[in-house]
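WARN no homologs supplied; continuing
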Amino acid sequence: MIEERILSDYKEAMKSRDTLKTSVLSCLRAEFMNAAIAKKKNKLDDNDIIVVIRKQMKQRDDSIEAFTKGNRPEMAEKEKKELEILKTYLPAQMVLEEVKKVVEEIIAAVGAVDIKDMGKVMKEVNIRVAGKADGKLVSDLVRQKLSGAK
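OK structure emitted
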């Protein structure tokens, strides 16, 4: 399970005095607790953990963009390093061709014909690719296929 791996790496980072990794994993563990409380669960499953990690990655992306625009390259670099640490805990990402194939299979399976069927298609695709593909990429591919299907 991802959470155990993060805890183990957190302990290891503390022992080796890796302050950046310790800080990132500590914040991540706190976010897990917050998410568990919000969902009224004692423990999160891997899918919930992936959602939390992706949310943290999105925050880092936004910070990198803001620091770059604000001419703060040292802060942007720190955020990039944190982002790399977070990426190591996500499952291997599917390549573009695999995602396209899944989208096409789901469109055929649910009988989607136009953009009005996007919700049905997205629901099924997200179940199939859970955590292995970027949601925006999936959404763009589905929209592109359904728009071109007319």
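Residues 32 and 84 are 19 Å apart (CA to CA).
OK
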